[in-house]
Write a structure and sequence with these properties.
The chain is mostly helical. It is built from 16 helices and 2 strands. A two-stranded antiparallel ribbon has the order 1-2. A hairpin with a 2-residue loop joins strand 1 and strand 2. Helix 1 packs antiparallel against helix 2, helix 3 packs antiparallel against helix 4 and helix 3 runs antiparallel to helix 16. The longest helix has 28 residues. It binds 3-methylbut-3-enyl trihydrogen diphosphate (2 copies) and magnesium ion (2 copies). One magnesium ion binds next to loops.
């Protein structure tokens, strides 16, 4: 496991060093990702190399930390972490097609540069590579968790597509959607890690629940940062959700107040929302307290996440998981 995979000469994403206690393992994950991309056909390699140079690597970190709570690092954890990042990146490529996004990880997206056709196939390629690893390494349980998460991500994105410009969308419907599109994969990562570390079934389930709550908080923060974040720091477009008709939690809270719904219901249904109106609504999100309300919801989920892993054995890795869940609500990118 500590064997450095891949090639030392390739550009490595500095995120592997974020958590010193798992830097060695994360370095192995990075080298394996570099090797996989590096070995791909020329065209695929050119399309994917830039994308893998950055990204926070939250999912592989969660796989490893969840596993290390129960045993020393092993190959099952490493390869599950690699597969998780491949699947996540595939889902981002497809998500950018769906959201018509031109920018991701501070680079132009594949759909923007080469069109949707190529981007669909680049995403599919990464899914296929992930399953090659999971099957070759016989990671049956990790595969089971990750496959289920992909199904959830697909249904989550379909629900979102059906609800675009639907200003009647409820808080409950929003939570159902983010559970599927984001929390499921993060939950699967924690379960795959714990199972790879030999955790008992009950602890695998607890880690799964931890990941689910972290995932809720993570997507709520992403939706807040879409309106409050900085494009350069985020590496992706900001104020993009309302343009695309994606009514996220801060907007749901705004519309719950009659004085705002009277004023903005029609504007938010309008597919040709003018830039001026967009800025005004964003100001109102701040003034009305809707952003704070959404933020408090993210805090609520992080607290639930931390509570749920109380019964698992104490370790430095459990402490890092607790700290990482706090980071989710402090993040600026
Ligand atoms: C973006 O995920 C998609 C969401 C679930 C909000 P990340 O914010 O983890 O993206 P990278 O991997 O760091 O680029
Ligand atoms: C998360 O939703 C997408 C996935 C789960 C793949 P978003 O559409 O908000 O993610 P970003 O903002 O494009 O990263
Ligand atoms: Mg998107
Ligand atoms: Mg977003």
């Amino acid at each position: 496991m500590h064997r450095a995979l891949g090639t030392e000469n390739s550009v490595i994403n500095p995120a592997f060093e974020d958590i010193p206690q798992i830097a060695a393992e994360m370095k192995s994950v990075e080298y394996e990702l570099i090797r996989i991309i590096g070995e791909s056909e020329d065209l695929i390699r050119q399309l994917l190399t830039d994308l893998f140079c950055s990204g926070k690597r939250l999912r592989p970190k969660l796989v490893l930390l969840s596993g290390l709570c129960f045993s020393h690092a092993n190959e099952k954890m490493l390869y599950s972490a690699v597969a998780a990042e491949l699947i996540h990146t595939a889902s981002l490529i497809h998500d950018d097609i769906i959201d018509r996004a031109h920018y991701r990880r501070n680079k132009y997206t594949i759909n923007f540069i080469c069109g949707n056709h190529t981007a669909v196939l680049a995403g599919d390629f990464l899914f296929a590579r992930a399953f090659e690893i999971l099957s070759k390494k016989n990671l049956i349980k990790s595969m089971e968790y990750l496959v289920k998460a992909i199904q959830d991500m697909c249904t989550g994105e379909i629900i979102q597509a059906n609800d675009l410009f639907n200003t009647n969308v409820s808080e409950k419907e929003y939570f159902d959607k983010i559970n599927r599109k984001t929390a499921s994969l993060i939950s699967a990562c924690c379960k795959a890690g714990a199972e790879s570390g030999g955790a008992p079934e009950t602890d695998v389930e607890l880690l799964g629940l931890f990941g689910r709550y972290v995932g809720y908080a993570f997507q709520i923060m992403d939706d807040i940062l879409d309106v409050t974040g900085d494009k350069k720091e985020m590496g992706k477009p900001v104020a993009h959700d309302i343009e695309e008709g994606n009514i996220t939690l801060p907007f749901i809270y705004l519309l719950q107040e009659e004085r705002y719904s009277i004023k903005y219901l029609d504007v938010l249904c309008d597919k040709n929302l003018i830039a001026g109106a967009k800025d005004e609504i964003i100001q109102e999100l701040h003034k009305s307290g809707s952003l704070t309300k959404a933020y408090n919801m993210a805090v609520f989920f992080v607290n639930k996440a931390k509570e749920v892993i109380e019964p698992i054995p104490d370790s430095v890795y459990k402490d890092i998981l607790l700290a990482l869940s706090d980071e989710v609500i402090k993040r600026t990118h």
